[in-house]
Amino acid sequence: MKVKDILNIGLFSPDPLIRSVAYATLNAVFSTPEIKNMYSPGDLSQYINVGLDDTIGFIGRIDPLINSWKPKAWDILIFDRNRKGSDEVLPDWAIVDLLPKCSVVVISGSAIVNGSIDWILNYVKTDNVAIVGPSTSLAPNVFPVKLLAGINVLNSDKLFKLISHGAGTKKIIAEKAVEKVVLVQ
C-alpha cells in the first residue's frame, strides 16, 4: 500500500491493530534527517526536574519512570484503562477530577494511538507535560507539550527480527536496535 492509503484508512480506524500500523507508518514518515537532528539522546528523566512539591500524573503505567520518581515527588497518580486489579492505579475516568491538580504530566504514546490524547490534554493545567514511549510520534509542533520522548531506530533489520520474536521495549533498547531520544519543543 502507499503511505497515503495506509494513513487514510488507518489513522482513525476503530481497529486498534490497523491504527497501530498507521501510526507506525506516520512515525516512519516523520523520521527524516532534519527532524532527527532535533533529537537529544537520553531518557525523559534527564529533561524534567521532579521535586517534593510535585504531584505527577501518569497516563498509562510507565514503571521505570514511576519507580525512579516515587522517592522524589510528593505524590504520583497513575491513570490507566486496564487497571489489572491494582489498588494504586486509578481508572481513566478519574482524569477529569485529578489530572488538573498535577504539576507534571507524563502521557504514554499509546494515548495517541488509542485516540484519547485530545481528551486527556483538555484536563492538563501545567506546561510540564511529556508524551513518552516507543509509539510516540516525534513530530515537532504537533502536540502542545513540552517534551516528546520516544525511540530512534538504529538498526531496522534487527528491530524487525526482535519484534517478530515478541521483544518488548527493554529488549529492543538493550539489543541496541533503537535508542531513547527526546524532542524538546
Biggest sheet, in brief?
8 strands, mixed
Q: How big a fraction of the residues is strand? A: 15-25%
Instruction: Provide the structure class.
Output: alpha/beta
CATH architecture of the largest domain: 3-Layer(aba) Sandwich
Task: Write down the Rg.
Answer: 16 Å
CATH C-level class of the largest domain is Alpha Beta
Counted by DSSP, the helix tally is 9
Q: Which residue ranges are poorly predicted, with pLDDT under 50 across at least 5 consecutive positions? A: none
What spatial form do the alpha-carbon principal axes imply?
A: globular
Mean pLDDT: 92
Tell me the strand order in the biggest sheet.
1-8-7-6-5-2-3-4
Number of domains: 2
H-E string? HHHEEHEEHEHHEEHHE
Number of strands: 8
Organism: Thermosipho japonicus
Domain Putative heavy-metal chelation: 47-173
Pfam families: DUF364
Protein name: Putative heavy-metal chelation domain-containing protein
